Amino acid sequence: MTTEELTIEVQKALEEIRPFLNSDGGDITLISIEEGKHVKVRLEGACTSCSVNQMTLRAGVETTIKKFAPQIETVVNIL
C-alpha cells in the first residue's frame, strides 16, 4: 500500500469514528503517518480534557484505524 493509499484508509477510519467523538463535543485530526506503521493524531475539543481519552484512543480510534489499515502498529495522541 502506498503512502497515499494508507493516508486515505486512515482518513476513512477517522471519518467512521468522528461522529462518536462529535456527539461528545470532541474531534480528531490526523497529524502524520510515520514509517507506514505509526499514526499520530490530535484529539480536540472536549476530548482534550476527557478523563477517558486514552481509553477512547485505544479502544475506539486505534481499533478502527487497524480495521482499515492492519499494518498500523501504534496510534498516539499528540498534544
Q: Could you describe the 3D structure shown?
A:
This protein is α+β, with helices and mostly antiparallel strands and 79 residues long. It has helices spanning 3-23, 53-68; strands at 26-34, 38-45, 74-77. A 3-stranded mixed β-sheet has the order 1-2-3, covered by helices on one side. Helix 1 crosses helix 2 (53-68).
In short:
By secondary structure, the protein is of the alpha+beta class. The protein has helices at 3-23, 53-68, and strands at residues 26-34, 38-45, 74-77. The chain starts with a helix and ends with a strand.
User: Any idea what the shape is?
Assistant: globular
Lateral strand order in the biggest sheet? 1-2-3
Mean pLDDT: 91
Give the helix/strand class: alpha+beta
- Element string (H = helix, E = strand): HEEHE
Distance between the termini: 28 Å
Radius of gyration: 12 Å
The percentage of residues in β strands lies in 25-35%
Task: Point out poorly predicted stretches.
Answer: none
The largest sheet, given as strand count, sense and whether it forms a barrel, is: 3 strands, mixed
Total helical segments: 2
Helix content: 40-55%
The number of strands is 3
